[in-house]
Each structure stands twice: as C-alpha cells, then as structure tokens.
Amino acid sequence: MRQLAYTLLTLLITMGTTQAQYITLDADKEVIWDSQAQKMSAIGNAVATKGDMKVKAARMEAYYAKNNTTGKNTITEVHAYDNVIMTSPKANAYGDTLDYDVIKDEVILKGRPAKLKTEKEVITAKDNITYYPAQEKAVALGDVRATDKDNNKIFSEKMIAFFQKNEKGETIMDKVEIYDNVKIVTKDATVTADKGLYLPKIAVIKLFDNVLIDQQGNKLKGDFAETNLNTGKSRIIAGQTSQGRVSGIFKEKKKDKE
C-alpha cells in the first residue's frame, strides 16, 4: 500500500531532450499533496530520487508545473531541510539545506559548513556548494578547504571541481580550479599564491602569481610553482612579475655547542 501511494507521487520530468527522467518523492511519516499551490511536502526521512542522484533529508518540499510540450505535470524545484545528504556516483554531499532548481540544473547546498566528499578528497565551504549535474561540476564558495587522504590541505575562497569518467567507467574528480587567498599546507611546506590548479589523478598542484614557498623558515618567491603532494617536493619558476628572477631567504643552521 505504501509503495502504491508513493508511486502516485512520481512526476514526469522532461529536460529538453527526447529522453525523459522521473523524480520520485517519499517519506516515512507523511506526504502532503497541495494541488492548489502545486506543491508536495514529504516529512520524516524524506527521499527524492532522480536517476543515479538521491537526496535525503528530515523534510522536503517539491513544486511542480504543467509542461507545455508534454501537457504533463513536471517538478520544477526541490527544497530539502535538516541533515541533508546528497549521493551520486561522482561524490556525496552533506549540509543543512538543499535547493534544487530542476530547470536550471542547479543544486545549492548550505551547511555549517557544507561538505563534498569523494573517495580521495573532502571539500568544505562556509557559504555554499553549488552542483551542476549535467555539467559534472561543483563550485564551493567561502572559506573553502580541501583535504586529501594524506592530510594535505588546500585553502581558498573559491574552488571549482570538475568530474569525469576514468578508463574503468568510474566517475572521479578530474581537476579543481582554486581562486583567491590560495594556501597549500603539506607536512614539508606551506605555499601561497593568487590562484592554482589541483590535479588529483597525479596529486599535483600548480600555482600562479605571487607564489611564496615557506619550508621550515626557508622562503622562495616566484611567479609559478608546482607541488607534488605524493613526494612533498615543490619547484618554483620566475616570470614577468618577479622580473625573471626567483628570490629566496634561507635560515642558517646553528651549530651545536660543544
């Protein structure tokens, strides 16, 4: 009986293509259908599913409208509240609220902080994480922090993560663009720059403009740097900003007293 009731809440979604997808909405306690407001509310372990993407929350609201092409009702917005978990083959995300605009293909996750987790990395953001399912892209904003399995840390104000399938058909994080107040912290050094590019598959971070490497008090300045997170080694290159030179400050080791 429960399955029959929630099957009635399955609405056809057309995304401007010939292939149609469905969003299903159900809950443990109750589902309320308000036809006048064109709204559905799911309370108690609410779950919304579309293809291989699933959203879970304490409660959820969905709004729908008539599709002018098919003449059928289609869900246009989904809002989730409290203990939100979004799962997909690309990554899992966690937060306090989630707003999914189906027409824009845009999912905005907010939390304290919002969190995106892949097999190898965890990214958190104070403001929000916006996910674009069709583009396989996620944008994190506000005091963003990324940590890999070896506890290497990346800090910035904005990160854009791109996903793709590998040779095994598995969805992985392909690259992450890093902007504003960039800082990399490894066990061997701290590196700062204006912007950067993280390549998870080869564990390399490329940094650009006003680059400073601080390794136990020894400092190098340049315009471009590359840090290998596996080896902990960094190299720095001069450019136009540094007038074609790499500058450095090196600490002199004190000799042990006899």
Protein architecture, described:
The structure is a single chain. The protein is an all-beta fold. The protein has two domains: 87 residues, no CATH class; 147 residues, Lipopolysaccharide (LPS) transport protein A like domain (lipopolysaccharide transport protein A fold, Sandwich), CATH 2.60.450. 2% of the residues lie in helices and 64% in strands. The protein has one helix and 19 strands. Strands 7-8-11-12-10-9 form a six-stranded antiparallel beta barrel. The protein starts with a helix and ends in a 9-residue tail after the last strand. The N terminus is likely disordered.
What shape does the CA trace take? Answer: elongated
**Number of β-strand runs:** 19
Q: Largest beta sheet, briefly?
A: 6 strands, antiparallel, barrel
Could you list the spans in which at least 5 consecutive residues all have pLDDT below 50? 1-20
CATH class of the largest domain: Mainly Beta
Mean pLDDT: 82
CATH fold type of the largest domain: lipopolysaccharide transport protein A fold
Q: Can I get a quick summary?
A:
With 258 residues, this protein is mainly β. It has one helix at residues 2-7; strands at residues 11-14, 20-26, 30-34, 39-50, 53-66, 73-87, 92-101, 106-110, 114-117, 121-125, 128-132, 137-148, 153-165, 171-185, 190-199, 204-215, 218-228, 234-237, 247-249.
Keywords for this entry:
about 65% strand; about 260 residues; single chain; six-stranded antiparallel barrel; lipopolysaccharide transport protein A fold; disordered N terminus; 1 helix; about 0% helix
